[in-house]
Amino acid sequence: MAMTELAAATRREPDPCGLSGWLWLVIISIVAGLAWNLFVLKETTALFTGTEAHVFLTTAEPALYQLSMLEIFVSGCLILANLVLIGIFFTRHRQFPAAFIMVALFSVAWVIADALLYRSIVPADPLIDAQNGRELARAALCALVLVPYVLVSKRVKATFVF
Question: Domains of the chain: which residue ranges?
Answer without folding.
Answer: 37-160
